[in-house]
Structures are given as structure tokens and as C-alpha cells.
Design brief:
Blueprint (H helix, E strand, L loop, with lengths): L6 H7 L3 H5 L3 E8 L4 H10 L7 E8 L12 E5 L6 H10 L4 E4 L3 H10 L9 E2 L3 H4 L17 H18 L4 H7 L4 H22 L6 H19 L9 H24 L4 H25 L7 H17 L7 H15 L7 H19 L3 H23 L6
Parallel strand pairs: 1-2, 1-3, 3-4, 4-5
Amino acid sequence: MQIPVDIKAVIDEATNIDEARETPISVSIYMDETAPGDVQAHVRQAFASASVHARVSMVYFPSFPVVAAPEADMAVIVAGLDEHVGRYAADIRAAGVPVMIVTTLPELVAEIAEASGHPVLHDDLVAPAIDDVLALPEEANGVHEPYPLTVDGALSLNKRMGEWVIEACRDKRLAFALAFRFVRKPLSLEAVNATAVQNAGIGLVVILPGADMPIMTLNQAKMLLQIAAAYGQPMAVERVKELAAVVGGAFACRAVARQLVAFVPAFGWAIKAAIGYTGTLAMGRAAVEYFEGDGKIDHLAEVVGRARDKAVMAADSARKQPSVAAAAKAAAAKVGRATSNAAGNVVPVASSMASSAVDAVASAGVVPGPAAKAATNVAHRLSDTVANRFGRGSRA
């Protein structure tokens, strides 16, 4: 099978992992001695690195003074009940260093900082998601801080810290991922979500038959290389079989899309968008979970291929729906359910996107002119839907 992508272009456009490995990074950590012991230990462990190019300094206050280090790439304040946290954060930001405030006492930290006259920025206050740390009884009137740092809570905190780092340190985010494990998954998922949105948009707006496939394939190939890079896996021409797996996924997804388009032609572009989105998301999420389990790039093709096959079979079953509208909506939702283990948020996003597409066509009267206009509107709706679900550059 001839691969309809320029492999050299894909590799050239992928981030240079060797260069990122050699990039120096510097983190200043300021540890509030009144902060809960579990969150102190968690941050110390999270920022432990074997990289010789990662410099991490740590100061405990109030025993030692907090002095901003302008040469640092980022700072971390592990916050407890010290009334100076807000002022320290303001001083560090004034020195030109982004500062992340990590705590399991988010409401108390914010209240104390507000009372001291130095309120903290909401986006810089990073804590575990409450749903991940507590199962509250129905009669509970509130959440008592500090949040217990359970296993799920620790994972949630890592996710939020990683999202903050890749947003605040965009120029060096791959270097941070290679140095600190908690940055890898958020960075990879950002690439997956962005690529899925791009491929959905391609399905919506590309009109020439077959013209969408090479573009989607190139996007998927770059996505996989970006994921591999985040986990420190080598990227070279030898990775052709991984690219071939992605191309196979593009062919398979497009074949299903053609079948569904033949079944519901008025909704063809909506279905292609749904398949482009959910198929890409399924393969990307499968790759992320594979690397999270310490998988190696040598077997990535097999993992991605299985996710692709599940997505294709699920999408194909959408043809059995009783109406054309139901078929278009089910094309996305069924793919999401088939890959739910690796792509937790696929179903609601895909269903929302497909519903928007179908509703837009219906409101347009399903005639060429209005349908084309509706496609443009859906492209905007799709972007908003995904941004609202995953967060547009969210750090908290």
C-alpha cells in the first residue's frame, strides 16, 4: 500500500526530541511548612527528575526567606495557611516567572490571600478536582479541607499540574514532559484533542472526493509522533509501520464514512466529521494509555490498529439506526462507546458534535447552499463544544 503522506515532512514537523532532551529547565519550589504533609510529599516526588538538564531548587518558609529567582522557567508554591502566600506569588510573577500554587486547601488559601491584600489568580491555584478525592454523603453540607490526597486525588492533582505546566511553559513543554512524568499525559491529550478537532473540521469543509484522506492521515501521523515524543520514545524513518497503521485507520474510517454517506447522503459531511473526530480521538487515546503503561513505540501500530478496528466496527453499526438523523448521531456516539476505556470523554463530545451537525442540516432544509453554510456554523459549534468540554487552555 502506498502511503499518501510525505514521511519526511511528518518527521521534520514533529518536535525534535533530542533537542528537547538537551534543553535546560529550571524550577523553583517554595514549600509552606503549614501545608499538609501529603501534598508536600506529592510535589517533591512529582518534580524529582533524573535529567541532568533539569534544575529543581526547594526552599521551606517561613524558616527561610522566599526570594524570586528570575532565571527560573517556573515556580511552585506548595500552600498551606501562611498569610504571605499571595504576596510571595505576586512577587514571583513580578519577576517574570509564572507561578503555580499547589494545595489541597484551595478555598482557605484563596480566602487568606484575599484577606492579606494579595489575592491569588484563580488559574494559578491548582488543587485536585473535588469529585476525584471525596465521595460525599447526600446530607453533607460542604467539603472539609484539606482534601484527602487519595489515589484518584493524586492522579487528579497530577493532571491539573501538568495542564498548568504545558500552558505556562509552552516553549519548553516537551522538555518538561521528558523531565517530569506528570506532564506527559496532559501534553499528549492536548495533541489528541487538537488533532481530533482538526480532522472533524476537515470532514466538514473538504468537498473534493478523497481530498480529505491525505490531510487527516498527515494529522494522525503527526499526532502519534507527538505522543511518542512526550513519552521519550524515539522518532525516525524506521517508524514507517506506525505511520502505515495510521493510514490504515484513515482508509478504514473513510470506508465506513462512505458507506454511511451512501445510506444517509444528506448528512454525509456531518458523518464524515463525526468519524474523523471520534476515529482520531480513539486512536490517540489508545496510544496515550499504551505509553502510560510503559509501552514502547515498537508495538504502537498494534495498539492503534485495535483501537481503529473498534471504532470502525462501532461506526458501521450506526447504519442500523431507524432514521437518517439517528444514524448520523449514532455514528459518533457508537465510536465513543467502543473506545470508552481509553477515551473517557469521547461519548458526550462526539454525541454533542453529531447532534449539532444533524440539527444544523435539518434547520438548513438539506439543500446544497444552506447545507454548506450550516457546515461552517457546525465547524464553529464543534470548536466551542470541544473547548467547553476539555477546556481552552485550561490550567485548573
